[in-house]
TrEMBL record:
Family: Belongs to the class IV-like SAM-binding methyltransferase superfamily. RNA methyltransferase TrmH family.
GO biological-process terms attached to the record: methylation; RNA processing
Annotated organism of origin: Alicyclobacillus vulcanalis
RNA 2-O ribose methyltransferase substrate binding domain sequence ranges: 30-103
Pfam family, one: SpoU_methylase
Full protein name: RNA methyltransferase, TrmH family
Keywords: Methyltransferase, Transferase
CDD domains referenced in this protein's UniProt entry, alphabetically: SpoU-like_rRNA-MTase
Recorded superkingdom: Bacteria
Any coiled-coil regions, as ranges: none
UniProt GO cellular component terms: cytoplasm
Entry annotated with the keyword Transferase: yes
Keyword Phosphoprotein: no
């Protein structure tokens, strides 16, 4: 189907998906660029529509003619496409996908984000969590929307392969602890006395990463069994949330791989 007008009802609805309110109301989100759309099509996430910019050459065959794309393809005028695209230099391909409805599974290893607000940090943490065996991520109050276009891009497809849960982190951790009586809740803190590389993080681990400026909230620190810091040789006071979280996720993975307890 070809859509010319920027004022088309579908175009206007898709453009609203760049806002959190639009995503919450519709249950849909945007995935932009050939690589991410390919990752989406290979995942369990439902494709609602596939959009292409009429001003460009033929769309990539593997995406355009994918079985999931049949009967969901729309060619848009450059003006209509630009209204939906979130990037400064759009690649010409956008998928509209359904936000997965996911219930918490409370696995043995979870990542909890406590008011982490930078989309780039959150996207990186999603990638790192997937890489190091944490397949459930809790997005606590004040944390950026995982389905915002910037987080989707920064996650590089990881968002389609991990469970993302929006929940009150204190309630989630209480339920997690009931299922993992021997588990450990670990909060990151720049002022912690214990080094992460000398702390036995354990096989059952809930790792809490805090806000970029304030760190983990006092309420969640009070729930933690221990707080750990990353040892540093330089003069930097702290690392950003993505770097710190990735180091700790790797440290947990390393200890598990080496049989540390």
């Amino acid at each position: 189907m070809y859509i010319e007008s920027q004022h088309n009802d579908r175009v206007r609805e898709w453009a609203r998906l760049k806002t959190r309110r639009g995503r919450q109301k519709s249950g849909l989100f945007l995935v932009e660029g050939e690589r991410l759309v390919t990752e989406l099509l290979a995942s369990h996430v439902h494709l609602e529509a596939l959009l292409y910019n009429a001003a460009l050459d033929e769309p990539p065959d593997a995406v355009w003619n994918h079985p999931k794309s049949v009967d969901r393809r729309f060619v848009l005028s450059p003006q209509a496409f630009a209204l939906i695209a979130d990037t400064e230099t759009p690649q010409g391909l956008i998928a509209v996908a359904a936000i997965p409805k996911v219930d918490p599974h409370y696995p043995s290893r979870v990542l909890v984000l406590d008011a982490v607000q930078d989309p780039g940090n959150v996207g990186t943490l999603i990638r790192s969590a997937e890489a190091f065996g944490f397949d459930e991520i809790v997005f606590g109050t004040g944390t950026v929307d995982p389905y915002s276009p910037k987080v989707v891009r920064a996650s590089m497809g990881g968002l389609f392969r991990v469970r993302v849960i929006a929940a009150d982190p204190a309630r989630y951790l209480a339920a997690w602890r009931r299922r993992h009586a021997q588990g450990t809740i670990v909060a990151t803190a720049a002022d912690a006395a214990e080094r992460c590389d000398r702390a036995a993080l354990g096989e059952q681990l809930a790792l809490v990463i805090g806000n970029e400026a304030r760190g983990v909230s006092d309420a969640l620190r009070a729930l933690a069994d221990r707080t750990v810091a990353i040892p540093m040789a330089g003069k930097a006071e702290s690392l950003n949330a993505a770097m710190a979280g990735t180091i700790l996720l790797y440290e947990a993975y390393r200890q598990a791989a080496n049989g540390a307890t």
